[in-house]
Amino acid sequence: MSTPTSDVVIIGGGVAGLTLALAIADRLSVTLIRPAEDDQGASRWAQGGIAAVLSPDDDLDAHINDTLIAGDGLCDESAVRFTVTHGPAAIQWLIDNGVPFTPDPDPSARYPYHLTREGGHNARRIIHADDATGRAVVDTLLNKVTQHGNITQRNDLTVVGLLQDNQGGCCGAYGSDPHHQWHSLTARHTVLATGGASGLYRHTTTPAPSSGEGMMMAAELGARLMNLEFQQFHPTCLFDPDGPAFLISEAVRGEGGHLLNEAGQRFMPALDKRAELAPRDVVARAIDAEIQRGTQGHVWLDIRHLGDQTIRHHFPTILAHCASRGIDITQQAIPVVPAAHYSCGGVATDLQGATDVAHLYAIGETACTGLHGANRMASNSLLECLVFARSCAQALLTQTAQQPDQYTTGDREFQPLRQAAAVASPSAALSDIRQRMRAIMSQHVSIVRSDAGLSSALTQLKGLIHTVEALEDALKSPQGKRLHQALQLAILTVLAAQQRHESRGLHYTTDWLQQRPDAVASSLSIEALAP
């Protein structure tokens, strides 16, 4: 077993994890644990862009107000104001680090980079790198991380848990390597940047989404989880049951794309004055309703009227990918369906990313900062990653400067990791259980819910978790441990949904159609899983 020690262990290598690593590495030693396959995380697949007040024609209060409206009454206004206010500086930091944002070709433009508009925004404030913004940001930051001498990357570990010191705080993480050996990595501070929980569902917008394992790692140490019932479904994922997931960016609608039903008619203008640019929960429910009324299993997203030149200029990635799947979007409408996309809930944190557990932080989609409330507004996610990673960095640098010997004085002793060698899991059985979990969540805990459906989901999920626990050696394998965590989070998600006796934002239930005037954010701990 190896036991390297660093100042900070960061679990997750998307925009949040990479930003934090670069922001602290000049003064602190960093171990960054990220997948060997660079395309595993959700950040790389983010197409649309990053929302921030950049144009002289825009203002901070307008962005704040749009975010509060989209969050449907459950945003923490202080978190919204904090995020929006620090947005422009975060974007400038990316520009200074060489992210190749798309310039505005108009010589009279009031801002040098092209800004688009997406659902919920009342101004053009989305800066982007063509239609592959996440990939551009990740590639740029990863290149700098790789060159930094104070950052050690580990891509050989599957992290399944956190280490706890004798005072109840976090002092690192542990995981298994490909040879089934356990490793512990100790640190003064541990940061979760592990992504959301879209992998709990059958249809998602990324090929290999996380299933909330990082959230459960934090909960196992005593951290609170908030707003788990608010799982966002992106309205437009490419419909291709036989192919991999692929997101059709909201920017397609932002530039004038129309949603059409089976009869070839637009349906959004009759439902919402914002039409295709209504918030995602509104659009996703409208599409779901059209699919239920129809027979083809999808609706159409049509941009042919924008013209060949505009389509090729703004959406080269989408154009090329759809072409590889046999669809020419300059000549054909795109078949689309809603798919699990973003978790508005997660580990409860403050404005520096600190959790309830000492020395444990969470940033990015795995955290619940209060920014998104009951529904995330388009392109506020990468903004949150950047702002809170930079804020967390300042907190870590300040704490380390004030307490330089805290970790090495012996005040935070911990029990060394003592586990038998990890075992190869019964992969077929665990894979089958995971698919059953996703089917249950997609059927009962999706865009439209009911009390009966939630009750059925809870019973079935509890049965699945008992099955995993009964499998010999399942919890001694990384695959089994992570599936157990996913099932625990699925159960907590159902419990959170059952407790919300109203329809609000992303939680829409046929049994509680009205909103409650006294609604507050939900909060659950791991104790809720007790029999």
From TrEMBL:
Could you tell me which pathway this protein works in?
Answer: Cofactor biosynthesis; NAD(+) biosynthesis; iminoaspartate from L-aspartate (oxidase route): step 1/1
Q: List the subcellular locations.
A: Cytoplasm
- Which molecular-function annotation in GO is an example for this chain? L-aspartate oxidase activity
Alphabetical UniProt keywords: FAD, Flavoprotein, Oxidoreductase, Pyridine nucleotide biosynthesis
Q: What does UniProt list as this organism's lineage?
A: Bacteria, Pseudomonadati, Pseudomonadota, Gammaproteobacteria, Oceanospirillales
Q: Which cofactor does it need?
A: FAD
Q: Per the database record, which ranges form the FAD-dependent oxidoreductase 2 FAD-binding domain?
A: 7-382
Q: What does this protein do?
A: Catalyzes the oxidation of L-aspartate to iminoaspartate.
Q: What class of enzyme is it?
A: oxidoreductase
Cellular component (GO) terms are: cytoplasm
Q: Which positions are catalytic residues?
A: 280
Enzyme Commission number(s): 1.4.3.16
Q: Which GO terms describe its biological process?
A: 'de novo' NAD+ biosynthetic process from L-aspartate
Q: Which residues cross the membrane?
A: none
The family assignment reads: Belongs to the FAD-dependent oxidoreductase 2 family. NadB subfamily.
**Residues in Fumarate reductase/succinate dehydrogenase flavoprotein-like C-terminal domain copies:** 434-519
Q: Which top-rank group of organisms is this from?
A: Bacteria
Q: What protein name applies here? A: L-aspartate oxidase
Coiled coil (residue ranges): none
Name the chemical reaction catalysed here. Answer: L-aspartate + O2 = iminosuccinate + H2O2
Does Oxidoreductase appear among the keywords? yes
Give the chief site where it resides: cytoplasm
